[in-house]
Amino acid sequence: MNEPEKLIPLHGGYRKLKSFQVAQLAYDVTVRFCDRYIEKRSRTHDQMVQAARSGVQNIAEGSQASGTSRKMELKLTNVARASLEELRLDFEDFLRQRGLPQWPRDDPRRAGLIATRPATAEDVAAWARTVHDGHDGRHGQGKEKTNSTESIQSTKPATFPEIAANGALALITVACSLLDRQIATLEKNFTEEGGFTERLYRVRTHRRNSRP
């Protein structure tokens, strides 16, 4: 026999969400990055840290609000996604304005970071040191290029600011992809099952019909 629907279902398990975990890691990495490479008194420093924090906080708040409002959960999860998109642009601007390359999505160094499944900012820092020392799976890449400028750029060691910014971008890309899937699921559930008002009606109807 199926359990009767609860008026307020289980909610608030955001710490188990992969999107929350990766967004939180991106936040920690962003704080570390900004303290090291962005002037602390600048507006950019504050904006990047706040955008990263907003991504984390809105996932948590949306999960907590889901008990009584799927609409609010969907809205706040969208806000988290937008905040991370803002953060992504800030990291891209950092690279562009300093003439540093933005690695393509299929760059083995990005794949190497994701493959390590980093859990902390220190894990990401360890990956950065490995890449900086040349252990990034790109040995010999670019030797067959005919353009001498491209060849020089491909073999030139990456600096720590370049590595750190591209590493952050890789994490943000993963977090955004996870949130896109999460939002799609929330939209589907909201469309098919409705929100708190519909659930309240179903629960009241069930209890009324269950009375002897």
Key words describing this protein structure:
70% helix, mainly alpha, 212 residues
Q: What does this protein look like?
A:
The protein has 212 residues and is mainly α. It has one domain. 70% of the residues lie in helices and 0% in strands.
Question: What Rg, in angstroms, do the CA atoms define?
Answer: 22 Å
Largest sheet: none
- The helix content, as a percent range, equals 55-70%
Number of separate domains: 1
User: H/E order of the elements?
Assistant: HHHHHHHH
Q: Find the count of extended strands (DSSP E, 2+ residues).
A: 0
Distance between termini? 18 Å
Helix- and strand-based class?
mainly alpha
Q: What integer is the average pLDDT?
A: 84
The amount of beta strand, in percent, is under 5%
Shape: elongated
Number of helices: 8
Ranges where pLDDT stays below 50 over 5 or more residues in a row are 7-12, 137-154
Summarize, please.
The chain is built from 8 helices and no strands. By secondary structure, it is an all-alpha fold.
